[in-house]
Amino acid sequence: MVAHFPHVALSFSGAFVAGVINSIAGGGTLVSFPVLIWLGLPPVSANATSTVAIWPGSVGGAWGYRREVATAERWLLALILPSAVGGVLGAVLLRWTSSATFAHLVPWLVLFATLLFMLQGPIHRHLKTSSSRSLTGAMCFQFFVALYGGYFGAGIGILMLAALSILGMADIHQMNGLKNIFALAINGVASVYFILAGMVYWPDVLTMAIGAIAGGYGCAGLARRMGRTTVRRIVIIIGFAMTLSLFLKHS
């Protein structure tokens, strides 16, 4: 037990920080996933473990926006279907990817997610002015977002906000509420698949789930006092630092 304490402490801390980040800005996977890589888990197992561990913490986010979701148009919930289908197909694709291939992809995926997070504002503003209001187009877009989400996951919140912007939504609180519901669908079906396929490392799942919930609920007030801009900058710095460390690790 003593010999494993540093491992447990680091996995808990990584999930705790991810929970704090997710409570206000999103992007916590940019912390939890690389931490598991550095703790020695194979990349595919680390990704599956992170997804299953962080998922319970996102339930609170969806519940927190229940009033905003209740006032949204019902047909928007049609995006749950492509979310679930894409999420499970992405999870299957991850299982089919060899550990060696995924290990080489990991630094690039983290870099992509970090850049996506950094450019969230411009992306959102650009798509908000789009003339497209097609539900079919948004469902197709959401499917590919979910496919990426089931495969890797970091940055999907930004992409889902883009999908809702395409539909002409402007209320950021409604958008965040719907985004959380779609994320629950994506990560929920992916988590079930990862569990059934035996892809997760349960000791870290349990430790990180507790850490994510504690961080999300216990430090939400602190994160809000820091402000969204400060938290976003911290996430971006962490993302680039993790990217560099992963490139060095696999060089």
Structural features, described:
The chain is mostly helical. The chain has one domain. It is built from 13 helices and no strands. It is globular, with a radius of gyration of 17 Å.
Give descriptors for this structure.
mainly alpha; globular
Give me the number of helical elements: 13
C-alpha Rg (nearest Å): 17 Å
Summarize the helix and strand pattern as letters.
HHHHHHHHHHHHH
What's the helical proportion of residues?
over 70%
Q: Which spans have pLDDT < 50 for at least 5 consecutive residues?
A: none
Concise structural overview:
This protein is mostly helical and 251 residues long.
Element layout with pairings:
Blueprint: H1 5-24, H2 29-38, H3 43-64, H4 66-70, H5 80-96, H6 99-118, H7 120-128, H8 135-151, H9 156-166, H10 172-196, H11 202-218, H12 220-226, H13 228-249
